[in-house]
Design goal:
Blueprint lengths: L20 E9 L2 E9 L4 E5 L6 H9 L6 E6 L2 E4 L14 E4 L11 H11 L4 H14 L15 H14 L4 E5 L7 H16 L4 E5 L3 H7 L2 E6 L2 E6 L1 H6 L4 H7 L2 E8 L2 E4 L4 E3 L6 E7 L5 E3 L9 E13 L2 E6 L5 E5 L1 H7 L6 E6 L4 E5 L1
Parallel strand pairs: 3-8, 3-9, 6-7, 7-8
Antiparallel strand pairs: 1-2, 1-4, 4-5, 9-10, 11-12, 11-14, 12-13, 14-20, 15-19, 16-17, 16-19, 17-18
Helix pairs in contact: 2-3, 2-4, 3-4, 4-5
Length: 368
């Protein structure tokens, strides 16, 4: 399993980090006990992913200075932003952080240019210069012709672009994005994702993104940190996360099947009793990863001698882009991906029984 780019609080190496974000802190809010230890380099995007209630947005709010931490510290470019109770606490407006929330949070009585200029004016920039810089940022995000439009006259995607321009206009060193595409309709999401990708590529500061799904996380992130129950349980590049998911949540996120069990003499024995022949010399506790497209479906037991064949009941058939995901129950519950044509030909439906076949070479095994 990959590990985050972290080092213990107070380590001498921490003082050597001249640029970027170092955040190692604990924060308690209600039933959430959040403990993180993360570092992000300038020009790097870290995506925070995890189930609801894992602490993703809470972490972002702490970085922004909107929540105080209970222990630890947060540093940006070598400057201490938060040292916990009784220590330094730099207010949000002085952190050189731009924040983009799910909701654009635009002032309804101000036009687009005035909304973007608001942060600049709050920092003492003269009105004329602030408006000129705001209009330039609106041109950069593709809204040069909408500078005088008020929020009610903008689409959801346009409003979020205004909010992005506002976050970038103050020349932040840290950009914090809390599911910025979640409130945008599907028709505008692709264009906004492309625009956001372009702006992030041109931003040389730290970027931390809270992502709801794998598409956003993998579209933007250089590294991914997985939060579960207030803890960072896995971190690494998108490729590392995909290849070695460390939990059922991560496996679902990246769209693969993950099984926990034990390997002995080339046979993987699942925790719930199912077994599969694997092409691995590993022995002992293990995790097995199987891509849904590697699962073949048959209405009757296939001829020949596939190494792994068993019968299972369809629990659900769900659309997934240009394919459908078929969920099966049993001792080895898994998901298979098939084309719409195959779905129609096989007459896949909940409650039906099918035979599944998996090649041993398609099953990746690694130490648990």
């Amino acid at each position: 399993m990959s590990t985050p780019h972290t080092m213990p609080l107070g380590a001498p190496a921490a003082a050597a980090l001249a640029a970027g974000l170092r955040a190692a802190f604990r924060l308690r809010r209600g039933t959430l006990d959040l403990t993180v230890d993360l570092s992000v380099a300038p020009g790097e995007t870290l995506a925070l992913v995890g189930p609801n209630g894992a602490g993703k947005t809470t972490c972002l709010l702490a970085l922004a200075g909107l929540l105080g931490i209970d222990d630890g510290q947060i540093e940006l470019d070598g400057r201490l932003l938060d040292g916990g109770p009784g220590g330094v606490h730099v207010p949000p407006e002085a952190r050189r952080a731009g924040v983009l929330f799910q909701d654009p949070l635009l002032f309804p009585h101000l036009d687009a240019a005035a909304n973007v200029a608001f942060g600049l004016r709050a920092r003492g920039v003269p009105r004329g210069e602030a408006v000129a810089r705001a209009e330039e940022w609106l041109r950069r995000v593709g809204l040069g012709g909408r500078t005088r439009a008020r929020p009610a006259q903008l689409s959801g995607g346009q409003a979020q672009r205004v909010a992005l321009a506002r976050a970038l206009a103050t020349a932040p060193r840290m950009l914090l994005l809390d599911e910025p595409l979640s409130a945008v309709d599907a028709s505008a999401r692709i264009a906004l994702r492309r625009e956001l990708r372009a702006q992030l590529d041109g931003f040389d500061g730290v970027r931390v993104l809270v992502a709801h799904d794998a598409v956003d996380a993998f579209a933007f992130a250089d590294r991914i940190a997985v939060l579960e129950h207030g803890q960072v349980v896995q971190a690494g590049t998108p490729a590392e996360i995909c290849a070695r998911p460390g939990s059922g949540y991560v496996a679902d996120l990246v769209g693969v099947n993950l099984f926990a069990g034990t390997v002995a003499a080339g046979v993987f024995q699942g925790a719930d009793g199912g077994s599969m022949v694997v092409a691995s010399s590993h022995e002992g506790p293990a995790l097995a990863v199987l891509h849904p497209r590697a699962v073949s479906l048959f209405p009757a037991r296939p001829e020949g001698s596939p190494r792994n064949v068993w019968e299972a009941v369809v629990e659900a058939v769900e659309p997934a882009g240009d394919r459908l995901r078929v969920r099966f129950g049993g001792a080895l519950p898994l998901v298979a991906e098939v084309t719409p044509a195959a779905t129609a030909e096989l007459r896949l439906a909940a409650g039906e029984r099918f035979w599944l076949a998996v090649k041993a070479t398609e099953i990746a095994v690694y130490s648990a």
